[in-house]
Design goal:
single chain; mainly alpha; globular
Length: about 70
């Protein structure tokens, strides 16, 4: 079986409001279950593709600072 996780995740959240996305992300993080990480990765990929170079720079700088410790 050829299961496309990206497509399944996108279909599952299609039409969600900003508040619903926030709740989904917060829930995934608070649970700490590793099986939810691919979904967050799909969100990051979609955000990255829709973001400007300035947003990429700000994001990667924040990530770098976050993981310095």
């Amino acid at each position: 079986m050829n299961f496309q996780i990206r497509d399944a995740i996108k279909q599952n959240v299609q039409g969600d409001s900003a508040a619903e996305f926030r709740d989904t992300v917060q829930d995934a993080i608070s649970r700490g279950d590793e099986h939810l990480l691919p979904g967050l990765g799909v969100f990051l990929e979609a955000w990255w593709k829709a973001s400007s170079e300035e947003e990429h720079q700000a994001f990667t700088e924040k990530l770098s600072k976050t993981f310095m410790n």
